[in-house]
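Troubleshooting: if your tokenizer reports a length mismatch, compare against these two reference records.
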Amino acid sequence: MGSHSSSSIFEYLKNVGAHMLDELYTHPPTCLVVFRELPELAKHIVMRLLFIEQPIPKSIVSGWVEKGSSALLNDSCKALTVLRIWHSTDTNVSGGSWSLNKKYQESIRISLFGGGKPLLGDLGIVTNDKCSKSVDFLKSYASERWDSYPVDALSIAQQEVLQHMRELGLAYQRKRTAPRFYVTPLALDVAGGHTNFLESKSGGGGPQLGVIPTGVSKSDSSDTNRMFAQISVSSSSDIGYILLETNFRLYAYTDSPLRTALLSLFSKIRARFPNLVVADITRDSVREALIRGITANQILSFLTSNAHPDMLLNNPILPPTLTDQIRLWELERDRFVFQEGCLYEQFSRNTDFELVRDYAKNIGVLLWENPERRLMVVSKSGHEDVRKFWKHKRPS
């Protein structure tokens, strides 16, 4: 609704008497319309007072805004007062208090959170037509039919994709030649980033942090690695939702169980709120990710591609202390290099040991040597060549 329409509504309501406003505020839809046209700060104030029954001191309300925003607060208070959404009361508190209109408070609760009577009520059947249908029949018919889409509107390539969607359970088509198809709830879950279908299989009643991909065994690390890399790339087109601090604290503004599960791959979840996840990136959490086959570059790429718009203003985007530490944690696992080899020992003379050692070194298969003890290790691939050489040169 434009600003002209909003001002017209306010001008009309300003001239309505108090009794008429109270009557209007007994209807939840009317209260919702008025709420939507309020200034943003006024909406915030109403939401904070929605479930508070007693008057609130004006000094407390003034503390909800910054000192430089007093003009916005005055405008919002004036709008709420003129529309009789709240009124000033004289209490024992110095400066007075604000009290929300009880009728408006009750109606806006119903409008925002459900309850109350239907807006139109039960109109019943207003015609004598023998073929007329009841409301219950129409609701049942609509729920059975659901929303279908014509196949003829699809191109040949799209129709081929539709058949793949049928096989995956993402679409329903009675048969290949059927003229219409339906999108299944599974497709909606996948498109929306939700994992309710996975949670139901896990036996949990609510969102689980370890649904997928957490809890994957080491044998499945390649699948986890591939999936993590794909999601980190594909999610780059979405609006970023991750904020990082230099103390390795992570804030993710999301309510998606799938995104939360991805974060739990390399971070320690500390708290979950309706639209916020707080986590810490620790040495142990990163090591768990590395064990699953996720590399430091993939973790940093995921954090960069999903960075909050405020972080995109930084150069570099991620804190250097964080990127350096994650790479150092990865290097900790690279201190030991494991190679298969064969041990050669029990040389009777130094000349024999040096002969075989020099041969193995020349062909590039010598891994380790200890001349004092006449020991050496050659690679498994070069063992056969060294064995044949020693068998041919070995004194009888």
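Reference record two:
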Amino acid sequence: MWNAELERDKLLHLEQRLKNHVFGQDEAVRAVTKAVRRSRTGVRNPTRPLASFLFAGPPAVGKTTLANALAIEFYESKDHLILFEMSDYDYKDFVSQLTESIIRNPRSVKAFTTLQSRIDGSGSVQKFTLAAFINSFAHRQKSSPRNATN
């Protein structure tokens, strides 16, 4: 059950709790915390996700760790992290899995790893990956606006 005092405490201490998991990424932690706090003030479109982030960088700098920490500290369980290993999907499978994840688990953190596997020879992300995101989020808005709180 939702408790205003617990919510306030969670938001107040979120940055420090995330820093207990993620080291050396203070700017990213601060940006995530600020966005989550802003989204919880009620000044947002309820048909949109709480926030969207793009963490880019070399392997082992804390991108997935931060997503996992957010699931643990904000949603109180690592089960609220849905990880998509992008090298495992073709377009049709990815769109289906992402759309299903958005509808079934609206209150969760979705993370996409090995996105570099979807970069073509020219250095740009393959069209299907971008189209998959657009189609999945558009489908979510049409089919499930009441659950749009991830």
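Descriptive notes for reference record two:
- Confidence is low (pLDDT under 50) at residues 140-150.
- The chain has one domain: 4-147.
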